[in-house]
Specification:
Keywords: Coiled coil, Nucleus, Ribosome biogenesis. Helix 3 crosses helix 8. Helices cover 63% and strands 5% of the residues.
Length: 550
């Protein structure tokens, strides 16, 4: 195997045919069948086609002849060995033989060319890759990750560009910086005003439209008349106006991107968005990598998500660990008192975990649970401030489930159905699911009632049998003159007609058996009590009552 001559012999068809001989070959029936087989192999599962092929073509191993199956993948080899009981070998010489088979496969199979084999492999590879990366377009959280990353980058860029416009236009009109603090408004005014010397009372209305304040517009007009700024050439002014228009377009694009993010969050994670907000929720998903990863995290991890550096620094220096990470940007922690910030962040992380799990594993997006969880956080805040006891979690969840359920064919609560082509399809699907659940409940109730009925019938039969057996025996106790007790057992014989009249089932005659101690104790308990009395001679005197006949 390790010699170069052996490696070279694999490359030549003639030498390889002396080592390997084709005995069986089963082509796939269709491209779909091939895709199903390769998916099963990638997951380490034996497909029905592969199992049938191996069972048909592997010869039985005996004492003289031992059969070993060479498998490239160890996982599928273990599955074959477990299911079919065939000894498998992976690695070593198997890899060399399989390499040669792949290389000379078209020459081993009659009617198959190298070109058609490569085309078939390429087509299967494409379909396999397509199936692996396939996802629900409407529930893709990758778009949220990209959009929140772009939103954060745009915030930084717009802030940098706006400061550049302020510094550049400030040479010409420095007083405008003190009057207008907002970057977007400043860029709009720089584009509108241009040369401050050309500003007059006629442009006051246009200034008011941009600033939305008449006093500020008047202050800008007065400042332009007595400005200390330097004169600016027309070419410089054109460049400033062009750059200002770019900054304005970026700011407008950022607004549109935020709306897109809001709509995406309402589709993918409506409960998380309703609880903590679209931006903070999107940052949590982005930091976790996906909504599924976020749903897998415990609440303690969600609480400090985004504060990893501070956590490891605290662990290294043995200081205080951080109380919150990305969830600090939510409104709840800002509204809480300083002593309650850690408590409310822990509670909020708990609710965020619940919301993310509902969003990840629910089939139809709805914000009912998110709204209820938000109410719970609000109640917890008021509890920290006023001491008013909040509602229990189980009661709130019952209300949410009631609102999310259908009653008389109508939807109770505020459902936001997004990314559905037809609302009637969604309603029909919900109705079908609810009907299935009701049928299952009815079946379970019916089975329970049947089991109870059969149990009652068995109890009645057992009681009847025990009454019949007890009536068969009657014990009479008699006392003689010398106070010696003699217990006489009399079997009460009854005819079959008497037993049927009494409503007792017919008992077949049985052979006499030695009774155990437990049976003797039970029969003794059924007998009337025997009261011992001590006579003058010191002997015990027993009195008994004779069991009355039915």
């Amino acid at each position: 195997m390790l010699l170069p001559q052996v490696e070279e012999s694999v490359l030549s068809v003639g030498k390889f045919n002396t080592i390997v001989q084709l005995t069986a070959f089963s082509p796939f029936k269709s491209a779909q069948s091939a895709l199903e087989n390769i998916n099963a192999i990638s997951e380490g599962i034996i497909h029905a086609d592969l199992k049938l092929f191996l069972e048909t073509n592997i010869p039985p191993s005996g004492k003289k002849r031992k059969v070993v199956l060479g498998v490239a993948d160890g996982k599928i080899g273990a599955a074959v060995q477990e299911e079919l009981g065939v000894s498998c070998q992976t690695g070593g010489v198997v890899a060399e033989i399989l390499r040669g088979i792949r290389l000379h496969f078209h020459s081993l199979v009659k009617g198959l060319t190298a070109q058609s084999a490569s085309k078939a492999q390429l087509g299967l590879g494409h379909s396999y890759s397509r199936a692996k990366v396939k996802f629900n377009v409407n529930r893709a959280d990758n778009m949220i990750i990209q959009s929140i990353a772009l939103l954060d980058q745009l915030d930084k860029d717009i802030n940098t560009f706006a400061m550049r416009v302020r510094e550049w236009y400030g040479y010409h009109f420095p007083e405008l910086i003190k009057i207008i603090s907002d970057n977007y408004t400043y860029c709009c005014l720089a584009k509108l005003i241009g040369n401050r010397k050309e500003l007059s009372s006629e442009s006051l209305e246009a200034l008011e439209e941009v600033v939305m304040d008449s006093a500020k517009a008047q202050a800008i007009l007065e400042a332009s008349k007595s400005s200390m700024g330097m004169d600016i050439s027309p070419i410089d002014l054109i460049n400033i106006e062009s750059f200002s228009s770019r900054v304005i377009s970026l700011a407008e694009y950022r607004k549109g991107l935020q709306e897109y993010l809001r709509s995406k969050m309402s589709q993918v994670a409506p409960n998380l968005a309703a609880l903590i907000g679209e931006v903070v929720g999107a940052r949590l998903i982005s930091h976790a990598g996906s909504l599924t990863n976020l749903a897998k995290y415990p609440a303690s991890t969600v609480q400090i998500l985004g504060a990893e550096k501070a956590l490891f620094r605290a662990l290294k220096t043995r200081g205080n660990t951080p109380k919150y990470g990305l969830i600090f940007h939510s409104t709840f922690i800002g509204r809480a008192a300083a002593k309650n910030k850690g408590r409310i962040s822990r509670y909020l992380a708990n609710k965020c975990t619940i919301a993310s799990r509902i969003d990840c594993f629910s089939e139809i997006p709805t914000s009912v649970f998110g709204d209820k969880l938000r109410e719970q956080v609000e109640e917890r805040l008021s509890f920290y401030e006023t001491g008013e006891a909040p509602r229990k979690n189980i009661d709130v969840m019952k209300e949410a489930v009631a609102e999310a359920s259908w009653s008389s064919g109508d939807l109770l609560g505020d459902f936001r159905f997004v990314a559905t082509d037809d609302a009637s399809e969604v309603t029909a699907e919900l109705k079908r699911k609810i009907e299935k659940k009701e049928k299952k409940k009815k079946k379970k109730e019916k089975r329970r009632l049947e089991a109870l009925a059969t149990a009652e019938e068995e109890e009645k039969e057992m009681k009847a049998q025990s009454n019949g057996e007890a009536s068969h025996l009657c014990l009479s106790v008699s006392f003689n003159e010398n106070d010696e007790a003699e217990v006489v057992k009399k079997k009460k014989k009854r005819s079959i007609s008497d037993v049927s009249e009494n409503g007792v089932s017919e008992i077949p005659p049985t052979k006499k058996k030695k009774k155990s101690k437990e049976v003797m104790q039970e029969e003794a308990e059924e007998l009337p009590s025997i009261v011992p009395e001590v006579t003058q001679s010191g002997k015990k005197k027993k009195k008994s009552k004779v069991m009355e006949d039915e």
